[in-house]
Structures are given as C-alpha cells and as structure tokens.
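anyone seen this seq b4? input:
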Amino acid sequence: MSSQESQVSPKDASYELLYWPGFPGRGEFIRLALEEAGITYMDTAQFKNGIDQVIAQYDEKNLGDDFNPPPFACPILRHGDLLISQTSNILLYLGPRLGLVPKDDKHHDALYKVNMLALTALDAFSNEMHESHHPISVGLYYEDQKDEAKRRTKDFVQTRLPKFLSYFERVIQGKASGEGPWLYSGQLTYADLVLFQGLNGAKHSFRKAMAAAEKSGKYNRVFELYEAVKERPKIKDYLASKRRLNYANGLFRYYEELDFDLEDRD
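predicted toks r here
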C-alpha cells in the first residue's frame, strides 16, 4: 500500500475533535461545520478525561507517526488515519466532505474562494480578536498587559472591526454571493459558519460596538446572514444544547474595560 493510499480516510470513519474543555475557543469553528452537516463526532471537550488526549499531543515525546507530524496547537482533527491541526486547514479538509462547498460546474475552484472568505473572517475574529486582550505576549496573563490591551482593543473596535464588517457587507452585495444571504454562490458554505461564530463571539466580547454596528444599518446584510445561520434547524438545536459551551476566558472573552463603543467617547 502506498503512503497516499494509507492516508485515505474511509467515509464511515468517525470524526474526532481534540480541543480544550471549558470554553468554545477556536474549536467552535469546527464544531459548527460538523453540526450543520449532522455529523456525529467525538469532542474531547465533552468527556471527563478528554483533556488527557489533548495534552498527549503536546508531549515533547510525541513525534507523530509514519504519516502525521505532531501538531503544534489545537484544534486538532482525527479522521481515520489522518491527524491534522490549524483551524483553517481543518475547515479546508472538512468543507468538501461535509457539503459546505459548492460542487457544480458553475463555480469552478469554489473551495479556494470559500477558503479566502473564511480566512478573512478568521483574521478578524480569531487572530486580531485574540490580540485585543493579549497584545504583548500570549505567555502573559491579561492582567499583565491591561494598559496595552485597552489601546489595542480600542483600535480594533473602532478601526479594524468596521473595516471587516464593511468588507463582508460588500461581499454579500456582490454578484458572486448569489441572491443572499450567503457569502458565496447563493448557498451556505463553511465561510458563513466562520463569520457567524466570529460575529457571535464579538457580540459577547464587544457588546457596545456590535450593538451600535447593528443599529447603524450599515451592515444589514451581515447581520441578516448572522440571523439566517442562527435559524438553521441543526444550528439552532446545537446552540440550545449542552454541546455549545459557554464563553469564558478563552478566545472570546468579556472585560468591561475593553467594551468600547464604535466611536471615541472619551
């Protein structure tokens, strides 16, 4: 058997998500895709000793196996013999398999267009949002960099957040999005799920700014997409279930002193 053949995961292989318990974090982008697809999956965050599987991946003695290098960080997906990490990479793998990327002749190379949109949303609501409360070092506690966090968060909320919201409003307004409310091809893709989770996390972390953004009317299409995802039957059931973890001190967190409005009111 060739190395390529040995890495082909059978269709009936179970999906396993390895992520920290206690908060949604970056694992939530993966969960939403699996939930929307109606896939039964194992989630270490839902098991009492699931954290042991996560920690084992970080062990300095873990060198991977014949085909899989050791992952650097969570989230991690195991599917059959395949083990991969990085949020965007996992979604790139899952998207076509879960029916979250168009598969018709009209949309050539759709995967890369959907991935472009998902990556942009992750830039905003994963990378930059994390840096709002950890602007100096991920190795320091928030309390060790509060002054810097205030300055970084204020810029994110008042400069970067409107820029990202305006971009996605423009995307939905464009012809490539279809008839709406989705970002691409007139149908739900994993990019829509990523944007939904990013907006949901921002609604938790930056309540004043997101309320003002929604009230402004400048981003109506973006918030219509948010509501459309929220009302999808499988997503709606998931959000009401115990599988949906509450926000805590993870990627999406709330600090009153960082809850700036869209405009400077100092």
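The mean pLDDT is 92. The first strand starts at residue 15 and ends at 18. kinda curious what u guys think
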